[in-house]
Amino acid sequence: MANIGPAYGMSRDVQSKIEKKYDDELEERLVEWIVAQCGAAVGRPERGRLGFQVWLKNGIVLSRLVNSLYPDGSKPVKIPDAPPTMVFKQMEQIAQFLKAAEDYGVVKTDIFQTVDLFEAKDMAAVQRTLMALGSLAVTKNDGNYHGDPNWFMKKAQEHKREFTESQLKEGKNIIGLQMGSNKGASQAGMSYGRPRQIIS
C-alpha cells in the first residue's frame, strides 16, 4: 500500500464513489456483533473506515468470527498462536476466512476480494460480506449465533409442502380461476366473411 501514489482523474472519481458506499452506522452494528460473537478479547477498532480496516486486516478477527459460527470440534479456519506479521500470511488468513464464509453459505457475489480489505480498496464490500454472513447465521438458528437477531435480515427459507394422493386427485377436478369460464357460450351460428367459393 505504501507504493500506491495518489489517484487522479477517473481513478479518483471511481475510488471516491466506492468510499461513499461505506456505511458508518453499519460499521457500529458489525463491530457490536463481532464483539458479541467472539468475546471482548477481539477488542474494538477506532471509529471510521480506516480503523475498521486495520482491525480486520490481519484476518485473525475474521477467522475467529467464522469459527464462532460452528460448533466446537469443527472449526474451519486454523488460527495461529501469534497474529501473522508478514503480508502474505495476513492475506492467506483473509483468504481462509473467505473460503470458510463461502462454505458456510455466503454466495460468491457477496464475498469481497482479499485486496478490498487488505489495501482498503472497497470496505463497503467487506461490510456486505459480513452482513451476508450475519444474515445466514440468524437464518440458520442453530444456536451458534450470539447477539441481537434484529441486527440482520433473515433470509427467505424454503417451505416445502406435502400433498396426499387424494388431495392431488381432488385438485384435478377443480377449474382454477385463472382458466376462466365461458358460461355455456359456443361459436354456433357465427360466421366470418364470405364462404369460400369453389368454381369448377
Automatic annotation (TrEMBL):
Every Calponin-homology (CH) domain range: 24-137
Chief localization: cytoplasm
Highest taxon listed in the record's lineage: Eukaryota
Places the protein is found: Cytoplasm
Keyword tRNA-binding among record annotations: no
Keyword Transcription regulation in annotation: no
Gene Ontology cellular-component terms listed: cytoplasm
Protein's name according to its UniProt entry: Transgelin
